[in-house]
Amino acid sequence: MTATPPAPPRPKHSTASRAAIGVLLTAIGVLLTVVILTPIALSSQDLIAWAGAPTGLNLPRPWPWLVFIALDAAAGVCVLLTVYCAWRGEPAGIFGLLVWCFAFGSAFANWRHATTPGAAPDAWWFFPAMSLAGPVLLEAVLGRFRRWFQRDSGRRGRRLPTFGWRRWTPGLGAARDTYGAYRTALLLGIETVDEAIVAYHRLCPDGSLRVAAALRRRDATDHEPAGTLPPDAEGDSDKPPYVSVDLMRRIPVDPDAYRRWRDIWADLRGDESDLADIASRYNCSRRQIEFVRRAGQAGLLDSPIPTALRLTHDPGHTGRPDGAAPLRPAS
User: What are the pLDDT digits (tens) for 103-160?
Assistant: First the structure.
């Protein structure tokens, strides 16, 4: 199988650059906190007044303060857990959904208070918009940080190469070839444009867009079952058959067990084709009979000496009873 080209090493930042990045991220965190807390502070008096008003909850003092503290504390817990999940590179899940529930609830309450008689003219859009601006900005910032963390830790696919609009423009570039290279980069995790184009041309030299089918054909060629030849070697008897490592491990080394495999193969080579009957006769599973047949078809049971012993005691042996060509284990 053709190995995927390794990703280019990431550039290392100097000490001054890391310090500047730390200051920048700290400023982003502070400003984001201000955006989230500002609508809470501005609407706190309205929420307390609503909890104590006869048209609201009609609670005596100091219970309206507890309503404000409880609602904002619940929202704060969801926001902090959303930040912690993003720090771990995980989706927020139910906590992200609850943040939006509190945001829409706060926006609706602010809108209702702003539409009461005597309210400021612009309060009906400012306070609801500020209640939603915090979660929107929080989701955008944390989503970006979560993707960065997942890419750095290998939990998300690599960033796809950017081919540019010129290469996609018909007449100026090659839209079909660009799409094939893009699909190849997507399926193989290639990061650079040049590597994606080269890999696509190797997979589909005829310009086909069936990249996934070409990948499957390539993998099937590299993992042919024992006793078969790849498509480009059919009819060429000079090339040895592929033998899986798993099959080589299953061939017994014990003389009695190996002799039993040879007896089973002798019956399989005869006129009998009922695998269930042979399995019952030798008190083994049908799956084991299949392994015996594959080993026999690959010529691994023709010698009275187990294959592993022959290869160990005679390193120059070709692995074939007739000494023709060496066996090639499939990777």
Answer: 898 888 778 777 878 778 888 888 888 888 888 999 999 988 888 887 777 666 667 8
Contacts of 307 (CB under 8 A, 6+ apart): 248, 251, 300, 319
Q: What is the DSSP letter of 204?
A: -
State both tokens at 38.
């500002």
β partners of residue 102: none
Of 35-44, 161-170, 268-277, 296-305, the poorest mean pLDDT is in 268-277
Among residues 47, 185, 159, the alpha carbon closest in space to that of 114 is found at 47
Contact call for residues 275 and 289 (beta carbons, < 8 A): yes
33 conformational bin, left if phi > 0, alpha if psi -120 to 50, beta if neither: alpha
Task: Give the separation between CA 327 and CA 227, rounded to whole angstroms.
Answer: 10
- pLDDT score recorded for residue 94: 92
Whether residue 319 contacts residue 307, with contact meaning beta carbons closer than 8 Å, is answered with: yes
Amino acid (1-letter code) at residue 138? L
CA distance 157 to 159: 7
Report the C-alpha gap between 102 and 275 in whole angstroms.
67
Residues 22-34 have pLDDT tens digits of: 899 899 889 988 8
170 - beta bridge partners? 173
Task: Go through 155-193 and write b for each residue having 16 or more CB atoms within 10 A of its CB, e for each that does not.
Answer: eeeeeebebeeebeeeeeebeebbebbbbbbeebebbeb
Cα 136 to Cα 114, 146, 147, 200, distances in angstroms: 22, 15, 17, 39
Q: Are 132 and 110 in contact (CB under 8 A)?
A: no
| Inter-residue contact 61 to 52 (CB < 8 Å) | yes
